[in-house]
């Protein structure tokens, strides 16, 4: 019986992603596709979920650099030797347009950030610096933003609208800026990836002055150190 228990324990250790780091299994990064009661978009929540998976990729992705076709996991694997696990939740919210909108009905103001945060927090989602969370907002257009772990705010998350999803599915609305409408297809995830990396702490020391702004861009020493410093708990060996 004792030998059987030893075999079972060994099997559990081999199955645990965090075992290679000598610690517990890292917590998941949580991603929410937030769906207001009323919104204007040329893409669906299901397509936004596909967009998230394409942008973040899989922990099994091969290391990738110098291409915006890299997934964030492949980018992190190349630059940090580490990857992360995540889940994606479609999150309906009982409100419609909160901030000002453009002619296509996409938001063009940052007030959405706080409205989304309050809704998530009201449902029990932890947005403190003890958690790592990212959002794609249906109807959010080209707006994006994040707070880093060093900001110590109650609404710590990275958020992007749905223009990136529109670009990935070649379904831009008429109000998208020339930057988005002419963006190469492999750059579609740049905005979301940037806010995701910022939420994880990449730009705390470097700001936006040392490269590494989008998936596949080489990171500086400061950016690598800050990702591990602030979000090493969520990272693991491939």
Structure description:
Strands 3-1-4-6-5 form a 5-stranded mixed β-sheet, with helices on both faces. Strands 2-7 form a two-stranded antiparallel sheet. The chain is globular. The protein is of the alpha/beta class. The protein is built from 8 helices and 7 strands; from the N terminus they run H-E-H-H-E-E-H-E-E-E-H-H-H-H-E. The chain has helices spanning 2-15, 45-56, 72-80, 111-122, 163-168, 178-181, 190-200, 221-231, and strands at 29-36, 83-84, 86-93, 133-137, 144-146, 158-160, 235-236.
Please describe the topology of this protein:
Layout: H1 2-15, E1 29-36, H2 45-56, H3 72-80, E2 83-84, E3 86-93, H4 111-122, E4 133-137, E5 144-146, E6 158-160, H5 163-168, H6 178-181, H7 190-200, H8 221-231, E7 235-236
Parallel strand pairs: 1-3, 1-4, 4-6
Antiparallel strand pairs: 2-7, 5-6
Keywords, separated by commas or semicolons:
238 residues, alpha/beta, Collagenase (Catalytic Domain), five-stranded mixed beta sheet, two-stranded antiparallel sheet, 8 helices, 7 strands, globular, disordered N terminus
What is shown here, in short?
With 238 residues, the protein is an alpha/beta fold. It has helices at residues 2-15, 45-56, 72-80, 111-122, 163-168, 178-181, 190-200, 221-231; strands at 29-36, 83-84, 86-93, 133-137, 144-146, 158-160, 235-236.
